[in-house]
């Protein structure tokens, strides 16, 4: 059966090659976004009475910053996924399985892209309907000029970028999940399974940073719940999926290996009844082996991965607290 032709994900193409490629991409996105949204924000600020139904600068800044963050960070996560495959190559039973996994990272079919576009448009329509209150008013607003078009359609590229990244990362997680049974994992060789944990933790960085950027919309005061709730409802389970999809089957395999190793070590410990007194040295060796085997990790997370994930986790509450503090300072200065 012929496979459909695949293409590089557009976000990966946007990042130029080289050491500073991700920084260049982020800078270009920020410049383009500010060039589009700054005039609209200035128009709203100049005549707030006329444009009272339109939000001010925080949501526009969020649109720009979210895309400028997701694109290079997704590129970074994809590069880490390829590095994980390089590290796992010596432990893969079949080179064809490894080649298939490599092809699944960063490459998608045209039908996949069409589905992502349709889903993004659908989510944007639902959110816009919730924000405006009616379909009629929502479409009527688009005829009010540049400000209306920019502000109303501003969240659409964010939905497209976010859905592309999330869908691709989940697909990557499924690729590694399928690869786990085809690896010669060894409980005594952490290098045979730790790359999967590092890849899973890095993938969450894209989603955690996007969650943190939502706080930008709260800087200027209370905001409509529907501007942030849909994204939060999507982000929260995605983080769990990115971690557990590739890690859980590996954890179960490592747990099985440890149980078998501990049982084998236990078999070397003589029973007290019906046997002659065992040699003290051999008994100490058997007990020490059993103890050390029972302490072996069964999760593919080393100290660096755990530290990195904890640092990612505190980003969200810190940025939200920072947004609240900035809002308080602005109110104090204006009063």
Strand content: under 5%
Number of helices: 12
Largest sheet: 2 strands, antiparallel
Number of domains: 1
Terminal residue distance: 70 Å
Q: What is the residue-mean pLDDT, rounded to a whole number?
A: 79
User: In which order are the strands of the major sheet placed?
Assistant: 1-2
What structural class do helix, strand and pairing data support?
mainly alpha
The rounded Rg comes to 26 Å
Based on Cα principal axes, name the global outline: elongated
Portion in helices: over 70%
What string, H for helix and E for strand, traces the elements in order? Answer: EHHHHEHHHHHHHH
What is the number of beta strands? 2
Low-confidence stretches: none
What does this structure look like?
The chain is an all-alpha fold. It has one domain. Helix content is 72%, strand content 2%. The protein is built from 12 helices and 2 strands. It has a two-stranded antiparallel sheet.
Characteristics:
two-stranded antiparallel sheet; 2 strands; 12 helices; 72% helix; elongated; mainly alpha; 335 residues
Summarize the structure.
This protein is mostly helical and 335 residues long. The chain is 72% helix and 2% strand.
Q: Mind sketching the topology for me?
A:
Layout: E1 6-8, H1 10-14, H2 21-46, H3 57-88, H4 95-104, E2 107-109, H5 110-132, H6 135-141, H7 146-153, H8 155-179, H9 194-213, H10 229-267, H11 280-294, H12 303-334
Antiparallel strand pairs: 1-2
